[in-house]
Amino acid sequence: MLEIAPNNPRRPTDWRWQRACFLAENTPTTESFSFHRRDDDEWVRQAAVFKRRLDGCADDADRRSLVHNASDLYWAHDIYQDEGNPYKSELEARLLSRAESGVISQRLGVEAGTVKLYEKLFYNVEDKLDTPGYVYHTAIGREMHRGFTEREYDKLWKWYAYAYGSCMLDSMVGQVIDPTPPETPAQVKATWKDDGMSSIIRKQAIAARTMPVNSFTQADLLHIWTKFVEIEKSAEVSGAGSTALLTNVEALLELAPTMLVGKRVQDPDFPALAAFDKPGHELRTHELLMIATGEAPPGLEETLNSLKFPETTSHEKT
């Protein structure tokens, strides 16, 4: 029981419900519950009584009676036990975004009382929102440390909600940024363009957050970073600011499909590359980084000055 004690700094988010289940399953139905005066608060006691009644339901008539007498708790539990449902994922992400129960209620179409009970019993994070360690390691989980995958949308929703708030979560869930419906046929083309650009912006951020760091992707990540540094430096010189960076995002993303993420140069799936890579010469990663930041790698100028192009033959264009 210590792992689900209220003062456990690593307590699970559903610690109250786990205590209620323990009490309901280990107390004969003919006996009254023996609650701990300090650890079993009003929410645990309410949940234990509900769990006993829920376990005693034999048919739909019993369940309808339970809904009538404990509607908010019944539907909160119904959402909680439906693993993998995006409805549950959004509700938990909304709680991490610090949104009020009334706002979440309106967004998801559930009673404010259901939202409150869900937080108290099944995803108790309200008193931990100012403790980032708990949110990252327990409320979100270790996935954020090993790297999210694109399929773990629920974890991504929670991370973005906690880091950036409700508006960012709206964009993640609805997959759109500040939509403005076109009012005339002439505005449709502009709307398509805005939607395409906002989709690219959103997807590139998700791609960056879900891209793992390993021996196969390290060089690609450094290459992408040097490209961004180059764009930023050129923007500063031209005075274009962040606008130039945004206009180059799409061109940068076009590079992504050609990156051999997870593939080695010697991979038999890419035999044509060997002929080009074997005689090729290119700057090392640290040299690329030096150039991107305005420095010159040692010996680079001498090497460039010593380069000579081969003589053209008669069939070559001059």
Summarize the structure in short.
This protein is an all-alpha fold and 318 residues long.
Structure description:
60% of the residues lie in helices and 0% in strands. The chain folds into two domains: 2-174, no CATH class; 218-294, no CATH class. Mean pLDDT is 82; it is low at 259-265. It contains 17 helices and no strands. Helix 3 packs across helix 4. It is mainly α. 16% of the residues are buried. The chain has helices spanning 15-26, 42-55, 60-69, 71-80, 86-96, 101-108, 112-121, 132-140, 143-146, 153-164, 166-174, 185-210, 218-238, 242-253, 271-277, 285-292, 300-306.
Describe the protein's topology.
Blueprint: H1 15-26, H2 42-55, H3 60-69, H4 71-80, H5 86-96, H6 101-108, H7 112-121, H8 132-140, H9 143-146, H10 153-164, H11 166-174, H12 185-210, H13 218-238, H14 242-253, H15 271-277, H16 285-292, H17 300-306
Helix pairs in contact: 1-2, 3-4, 4-7, 5-10, 6-7, 10-11, 13-14, 13-16
Keywords:
single chain, 318 residues, mainly alpha, 2 domains, 17 helices, 0% strand, elongated
- Uncertain runs are 259-265
Q: Span between N and C termini?
A: 83 Å
Number of helices: 17
Shape: elongated
What percent strand? Answer: under 5%
Order of helices and strands, N to C? HHHHHHHHHHHHHHHHH
Please estimate the helix content.
55-70%
Major beta sheet, specifics? Answer: none
The number of strands is 0
SS-based structural class? mainly alpha
Instruction: Give the overall pLDDT as a whole number.
Output: 82
Radius of gyration: 29 Å
